[in-house]
Amino acid sequence: MDGNRTNLGWSPCETINGGSQTPWLIICDHATNAVPPWINNGDLGLVTEDMHRHIAYDVGAAGMTRELARLLNAPAVLANFSRLVIDPNRGEDDPTLVMELYDGSIIPANRNLSRQDLDRRLNECYRAYHSAVAQAASKMDDPVIVSVHSFTPAFIGRPPRPWHVGLLHASDRRLTDPLFEELKAEGDLTVALNEPYTGFLRGDTIDRHAIETGRNNTLIEIRNDLIQDDQSQKAWAERFARMLPKALERIERKALADG
User: Fold this and answer.
1) Beta-sheet pairing, 144-151 with 217-223
2) 243/239 Cα distance (integer angstroms)
3) Residue 189 resides in a domain
4) Domain limits at 211?
5) 88-138 confidence digits (pLDDT tens)
6) Rounded distance between C-alpha atoms, residue 219 and residue 199, angstroms
7) C-alpha to C-alpha distance for 208 and 120, rounded to whole angstroms
8) What is the CATH number of the domain that holds 244?
9) What's the total number of domains in the chain?
């Protein structure tokens, strides 16, 4: 179920069709470590161990996204290129759009990148993915966007991260706050808001497809040691498939109460 793949038959994204009545659109920015074959024959110059680390993709996020989409009968869009190729969860003018150094590893194929090479990555990866997300959302009446990510338990030389789950939000907390309450009610989780990262990142995927369009949204970050295999990914997907509708119901009840 995970996002560890070869680049054979590469395309910029994977799309999953959902039911016509679902409010949910599930997205996964960092689903895979795949490198398009037109980039140095699919090789960024990193050792295999690095391409299987969190620096290349969000371990476990793809499998959880597919299972969550299945359980919610929801459409999903998953990027099919490593974030080291180009990071779709950044604005086009973000200096970290293409990383040359990440958590102690130099990315050889990203050093001295030409404008022509950057434009190709933008057009054939980044913009193609965002176009697919926008197209999926445009087919829905009022989509609720859920972005699935995972985080490493610790960066090299830094203290361990204590959270099981983080929920990231920017200015719109309508879905995040009730989902946070549902997570806390589970009783066995260490959860936090805007950890291990901030949800305020101009031009990122949620900003682009949810904040700017006024759509309900949340970004889920799960510690990746908790979703290493199919069984654990399914278990977490089942948790969120149960909690997300409850959180949405809270929003709807509040809207009715507010008149």
Assistant:
1) parallel
2) 6
3) yes
4) 13-257
5) 999 999 999 999 999 889 999 999 999 999 999 999 999 999 999 999 999
6) 8
7) 21
8) 3.40.630.40
9) 1
